[in-house]
């Protein structure tokens, strides 16, 4: 080993030893500070001198079997009653050890000369035992920027790269300021937020401030991803942030300053707009309860008309009580004061009360924080500027452009909307009213020439509509209005007027006219189609059907089409004696109206009649009819009831496909037949149906019907069917009379077709 290497080794050892001695000296100094605080407490409580207090502290520690430092911490905790050591500590750390550690951190922070020392003391005494690897203290600037005032535990050069964070850059510290609460991040990389010490993934950023103002942020970093922390650790971190906040105002780095009140007053007085300098009024719980007016500049004009001397020194909420409304001026000022984030609005309502009458003024407002004070500046919008702005927007929305022509000097003034309407660049200059015919469609030139003559020669108000042909090939439909300005002798001084783009209105009128023509054609076609549908329906389904008397059975039918022709639907019925000597009775209802409903009705009715000739039962007939509806027709959906009566056995077999069940009237009582299962026709490709049978007795009457007889929009179907049974119980002299009575008593409100088939055994 060379001599130089030996010298370097000795020097390194010396540096290490001195660093250890310095750390020990600092720890001893912190311990001595705690001992001195405890002695001061004993002096006050025992009313003794410092020497006696020192002896008493040593005697008590010896009697309790503890060290003087531990006893001093217990005395301080007992007297202070603060929250620094009242929070829970990790389970592996004894409570007294945690108390000594936190009180030592407090002592180190309070004695620190700068934010760098504060950061080192916090990391050494309070945060490293919690597993933290680094700590950063950020100061919030008046422009909401962040300056790294103190740090400890970061790699060499890392802190230098993060000395300053401009406004608007989203970091964990920025989020803590804006959200005004602790931000816990499990993994910095996954969060997407940049910050100092990117190789330390776990971290928490806690806002630190006093008097309702966030002065800075305490950011603590861990070497690994951060799992959810127990409540004790979270409360301990927030307590450390409060401890850090107490020292932030004194621990300001070089070059970091905020304007003194005199400088802020000078700034306010140099403004040409009204300005107030406000200071916070802090409540006992540490929140900002109000703001006091510290200064009023010379341009100040109270929106309620009060003199500046009446405002200076007043409470903001006392002077402007309506500012306390949620989301109002007070909330904006309080947010700026707490976070340092400036607020600016082009238009904001400033409320006030004048003689118990609320008054609101619209103004542009700027609110900024300067140290512990807030500067608010506003500019009430001038009425003339407001009206001009309103007129400009009205002209833009109405596609109107104004002009004025001076006849003496030939000056022509166009606004920007008029240049846009004519498709001309401002550098091309305006077009005189006398030359406007050069830009009109040839067919419109005669009428436009008459308009120009009326205004410029006859000196009378006039208007005209024409097609403006622009240089870019676009044609616009335009209406021009102009009026002359005359002197006392009737001589023309100027012409004022406006052009309005009515192209949209023109084409709307054209489209409306075409739509009206098409609607008239469509209405005529619909009327003819409805008329044809009604005729087709009346031919196939007449309102009455010849009564069938066969084998002791009487069948009667009533059919009532829909009241409105366009609602003519697909209700159908059938009653016929089959070659097998059985009698087929059926009713059905096709979904839809018009031609489609009528043609669908014809398809199913004729198909059922043909299928019935095979001798199959009602269930099988409906199965086949479902195949017809699903495969052989144009997407027909229908309900139906089908019955076959055998005169030899007096047995009526029946089945249903989604249709209301028949009603049996026997011995003066009307009852519904069972609700047999069966889906509507055409709903699925393959369906099977169940049939039932009823033996008819002499004088029995069976009713088959469609929903147009019973259905109401305001009642459930069960209630409608029960009402039908009640009406059917009323005695009638014969079957035809019964059917007429049912139609007369029907209170259905669906405007649908109605069909009733009555089957009576004599």
Cα shape: flat
Number of strands: 27
Provide the CATH superfamily of one domain: PPM-type phosphatase domain
CATH architecture of one domain: 4-Layer Sandwich
Mean pLDDT: 79
Protein name: Transcription antitermination regulator
Pfam family, one: PAS_4
InterPro entries: ANTAR, Bact_Sigma-Reg, GAF-like_dom_sf, PAS, PAS-assoc_C, PAS-like_dom_sf, PAS_4, PPM-type-like_dom_sf
Keywords: Hydrolase, Transcription, Transcription regulation
Task: Spell out the blueprint of helices and strands.
Blueprint: H1 3-46, H2 50-64, H3 68-80, H4 95-111, H5 115-127, E1 132-140, E2 146-152, H6 158-161, E3 164-165, H7 172-179, E4 183-185, H8 188-191, E5 202-210, E6 213-222, H9 231-248, H10 261-269, E7 275-282, E8 288-296, H11 316-319, H12 329-339, E9 343-354, E10 357-370, E11 373-380, H13 383-397, E12 400-406, E13 412-414, H14 416-422, H15 445-456, E14 462-469, E15 475-486, E16 492-501, H16 503-540, E17 544-550, E18 553-560, E19 569-577, E20 583-593, H17 594-612, H18 618-632, E21 638-646, E22 651-657, E23 663-666, E24 669-672, E25 691-695, E26 701-705, H19 717-728, H20 735-745, E27 754-761
């Amino acid at each position: 080993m060379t001599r130089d290497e030996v010298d370097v080794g000795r020097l390194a050892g010396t540096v290490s030893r001195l660093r250890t001695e310095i750390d020990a000296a600092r720890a001893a100094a912190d311990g001595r500070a705690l001992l001195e605080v405890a002695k001061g407490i004993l002096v006050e409580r025992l009313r003794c001198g410092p020497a006696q207090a020192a002896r008493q502290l040593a005697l008590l520690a010896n009697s309790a079997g503890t060290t003087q430092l531990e006893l001093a911490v217990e005395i301080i905790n007992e007297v202070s009653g603060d929250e620094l050591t009242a929070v829970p500590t990790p389970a592996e750390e004894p409570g007294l050890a945690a108390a000594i550690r936190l009180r030592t951190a407090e002592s180190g922070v309070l004695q620190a000369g700068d934010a760098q020392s504060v950061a080192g003391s916090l990391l050494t005494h309070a945060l490293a035992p919690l597993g933290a690897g680094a700590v950063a203290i950020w100061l919030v600037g008046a422009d909401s920027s962040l300056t790294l005032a103190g740090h400890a535990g970061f790699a060499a050069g890392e802190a230098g790269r993060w000395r300053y964070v401009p406004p608007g850059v989203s970091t964990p510290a920025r989020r803590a300021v804006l959200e005004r609460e602790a931000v816990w991040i499990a993994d910095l990389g996954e969060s997407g937020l940049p910050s100092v010490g990117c190789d330390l993934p776990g971290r928490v950023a806690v806002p630190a401030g006093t008097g309702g103002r966030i002065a800075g942020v305490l950011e603590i970093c861990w070497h690994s991803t951060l799992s959810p922390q127990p409540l004790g650790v979270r409360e301990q971190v927030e307590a450390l942030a409060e401890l850090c906040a107490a020292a932030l105002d004194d621990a300001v780095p070089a070059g970091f300053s905020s304007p003194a009140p005199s400088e802020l007053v000078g700034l306010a007085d140099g403004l040409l707009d009204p300005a107030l300098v406000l200071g916070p009024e802090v409540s006992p719980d540490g929140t900002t309860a109000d703001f006091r007016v510290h200064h009023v500049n010379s341009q100040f004009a109270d929106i309620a008309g009060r003199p500046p001397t009446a405002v200076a020194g007043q409470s903001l909420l006392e002077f402007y009580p309506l500012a306390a409304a949620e989301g109002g001026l007070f909330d904006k000022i309080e947010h700026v004061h707490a976070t340092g984030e400036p607020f600016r609005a082009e238009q904001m309502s400033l409320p006030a009360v004048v003689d118990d009458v609320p008054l609101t003024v619209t103004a542009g407002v700027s609110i900024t924080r300067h140290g512990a004070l807030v500067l608010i500046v506003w500019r009430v919008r001038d009425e003339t500027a407001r009206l001009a702005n309103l007129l400009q927007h009205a002209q833009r929305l109405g596609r109107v452009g104004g002009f004025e022509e001076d006849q003496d000097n030939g000056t022509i003034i166009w606004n920007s909307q008029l240049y846009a309407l004519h498709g001309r660049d401002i550098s091309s200059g305006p077009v005189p009213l006398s030359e406007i015919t050069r830009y009109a469609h040839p067919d419109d030139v005669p009428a436009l020439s008459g308009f120009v003559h009326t205004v410029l020669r006859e000196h009378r108000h006039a208007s005209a509509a024409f097609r403006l042909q622009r240089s870019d090939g676009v044609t616009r439909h335009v209406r021009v209005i102009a009026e002359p300005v005359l002197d006392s002798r009737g001589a023309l001084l100027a012409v004022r007027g406006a052009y309005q783009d009515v192209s949209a209105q023109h084409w709307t009128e054209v489209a409306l006219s075409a739509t009206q023509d098409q609607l008239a054609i469509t209405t005529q076609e619909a009327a003819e189609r409805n008329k044809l549908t009604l005729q087709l329906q009346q031919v196939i389904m007449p309102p009455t059907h010849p009564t069938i008397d066969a084998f002791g059975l009487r069948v009667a039918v009533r059919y009532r089409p829909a009241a409105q022709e366009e609602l003519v639907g697909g209700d159908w019925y059938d009653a016929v004696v089959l070659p097998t000597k059985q009698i087929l009775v059926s009713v059905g209802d096709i979904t839809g109206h018009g031609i489609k409903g009528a043609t669908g009705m014809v398809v199913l009715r004729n198909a059922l009649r043909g299928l019935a000739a095979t001798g199959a039962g009602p269930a099988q007939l409906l199965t086949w009819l479902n195949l017809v509806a699903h495969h052989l027709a144009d997407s027909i959906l229908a309900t139906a009831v089908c019955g076959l009566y055998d005169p030899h056995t007096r047995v009526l077999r029946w089945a249903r496909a989604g249709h209301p069940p028949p009603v049996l009237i026997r011995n003066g009582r009307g009852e519904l037949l069972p609700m047999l299962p069966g889906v509507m026709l055409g709903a699925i490709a393959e369906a099977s149906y169940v049939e039932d049978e009823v033996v008819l007795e002499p004088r029995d009457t069976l009713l088959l019907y469609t929903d147009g007889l019973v259905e109401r929009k305001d009642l459930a179907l069960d209630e409608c069917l029960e009402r039908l049974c009640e009406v059917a119980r009323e005695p009638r002299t014969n079957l035809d009379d019964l059917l007429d009575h049912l139609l007369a008593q029907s209170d259905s409100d669906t405007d649908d077709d109605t069909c009733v088939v009555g089957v009576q055994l004599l």
